[in-house]
Each structure stands twice: as structure tokens, then as C-alpha cells.
Amino acid sequence: MNNAISKRLIGGGSCMCRRLYSTPTVRYPAAPQATPVRLSQGDAVADWSHFHNNNNGLLSLSQHVCAARMSHQKTFSSMAGGTMNVFDRNMKRKQKNWASMLPDTQKYDYLRDEVGRRVADRVYDIARTFPLALDVGCGRNHIAEHLSKDIVERLFLTDISENALKQKKESEIPSRCVLADEEFLPFRANTFDLVVSSMSLHWINDLPGAFRQIQQVLKPDGVFIGAMVGGETLYELRCSLQLAELEREGGFAPHVSPYTAVTDLGNLMGRAGFTMLTVDVDEIQVHYPGILEVMKDLQGMGESNCAWNRKSMLHRDTLLAAAAIYQEMYGQEDGSVPATFEILYMIGWKPHESQAKPARRGSGNVSFDELGKLTPPSSPARSKGQ
Predict the structure, then answer these.
(1) What residue numbers bound the domain in which 196 lies?
(2) Is residue 302 a part of any domain in this protein?
(3) pLDDT score of 82
(4) 371 lies in a domain?
(5) For position 21, which CATH number holds?
(6) Given this model, what pLDDT does residue 10 score?
(7) How many domains in the chain?
(8) What does the pLDDT look like over 233-267, one tens digit per residue?
(9) Which of 180, 259, 338, 385 lies 20 to 30 Å from 232 when distance is taken between CA atoms?
């Protein structure tokens, strides 16, 4: 466990991580599928020569690309046929910009650094070198700092927050920064060997469309490795605020953003065109002194609620009641309160003819009923002894 997380704990608090399950395929009913964005070659970028540095060191796209992105956004929304506009993306950009400019912003990186390390571990599990990779929603570069240039030779970093890119952590991998919205990736198809993402996709309005764009920019046999928070994240905070508002105001409003359920994730990736899927779940539980510290750290992470239907204010007496409920329902013996983060990890590959494929239905020559009759082969040592 990352030492930075331990510094946020108090007293005898602990950080618990629990792997719930890992499965090669997940099949569940999918959410409505949206039509992907298709950027023309004139609007997209694919190699280093198409970029130029501006005064602040970021790689900027030309104005016609920005205008094209807006037109694509309008077209995309109209073609999606049911795409829900849940999150205020402009508000999320402001939240992340504000959080990145805090004088002690690194103090709030403990969760992102830990999840980024676990994503990097999954990259190391793949025995190959990736010449060109993309980090979608990189924040302050929480994945690349755990990777080596022997694994990833070159890296593109994209984020909606300009300040986050300016404050990015250094790594040994040659990298370039692109200010871009995760919902509209300005890259050509078949560009990257690897795409990674950590703690960013849960703020996207059209997740199926985002998966399709990621699959599109990958080369054949390229891999996508991502992590996002799941539906059970911060259930303690959500329950405490709802009960407090019901008691003090006679009703409640959403204060914690809605998240994707793990039961939908595998099928959404399958519908986006990924193969050989792997989905697994971690629970990271961090202990805080109280509810105010939980909310302060979420704000410092840039993870405040940005749903359109969020409540603009929280009454003081409601907050005090929520703090008491939080302590009563979830408080530990040492006086701390837990905050649970459910992290969903996903791995998907872009199809290629070299990948393993399931055998044709009916091609098997051994029945499952006969498996119990098969005798295991004798080992060489046993044969010599006889």
C-alpha cells in the first residue's frame, strides 16, 4: 500500500484492499450503445510532427481542430440517441484546475498514486514493449511515474485540465501533453499500441462512446488498461447525507455523483469492440477523522460532485447531523470514520488475427461426461521407479 495513503490515516486506522473477483469475460445486459465520433484526418493528429509547443509548454491543437470538435460534439449528441448528459464537464474542468493549483496539491494525490501504481502493475503483466502509448485523463501523471521507458517508449498525456498538465510529475518516459476532453479524443485511428486511464472515466457522460473512441485509436492487437471508481464508492458518505437531509429538510438531493456498476462494465467494453476482456474490483478503504476531512480531501482531489442536478449548498445543521450519523453508523473504535473507494479495473484488446479465438461450436471430440474416465499421464519419475 502506498505510503502516502498511510499518512492520511489517524490513530490505529488502516487501509484495507480486497480483490473481489477476476474473470476473463463478463456478460451482462448492456446500456444503450452510442455512435462513435469519427474525426477526419484533417482534424486529427497521429505523429510528433503535427504538434507544436505554445508558451506554457503544452501541445496545443489548431483552432480548426477545436471548432471541429465542437461540431463533432453536436453531431455526436444528436446521433447518440439517448446519451445522457449527467455531468457538467465545464465544472469538472474548473474543479480539476482549482485542485491542481493548491499549494499542497501533492497531499491529495495518495489515492490517484495508489490506483495509478496498480494500473502500471497490470501493464507490466503484459510481456511486450509498447512503442507509443496514450494516457487518457492523466491528471498529474499518476501512471507514468510507475512505468519505465523499457516498457513504454513514448507517451502522450491528455487531460481536460490545463493546470494539471502544467503540474504533472516527471517520469523517465519521453512524453507530450495534449489538452483534450476525454469524451472527444483528437487522434487518428490505429495510432497507439497501449491506452491507459486512471480515475477519469467515471466523469464521462457517454461511456460507451468513450470506449469506442479508445478502441478506434488503438492499433490492431493493442490493449486498453483502465481504472475507474465504481457504484459502491463513498456509500458511507452518501447514506449519511441522505439520512441527515431526510431528518432536517424532509427530503434529500444527490451529493455524491452516480457511478458505473461493475455488472455493466464488461458488456459495455464488449459492445465497443474489445476482446479478451478482464474486469476485476478492488476496495480501498481510507480512514479519516470525520466527515469534514472526507469532503475536504475529495475537493482537494478535484473529485467534487459535478452532476447537473447537484445541490448548490448544504445547510450547516444538515452537515452537523450528517457528521453525527456518519460517526454513529460507521465510526471505528479509534474515533475515525472510513471512506470506501470501489475501483473497477478493466483490460480489453483490439481484435487481431493473431489472437486466440474460441474453437468452432461442435468441434470438440471429448464429452464432459467422459472427463472423469480419463487417467492422468504418469510422471517420468514414477515411470523410472517402476
Answers:
(1) 3-69+78-239+252-310+334-353
(2) yes
(3) 52
(4) no
(5) 3.40.50.150
(6) 38
(7) 1
(8) 999 998 998 898 888 877 666 666 677 778 888 88
(9) 180
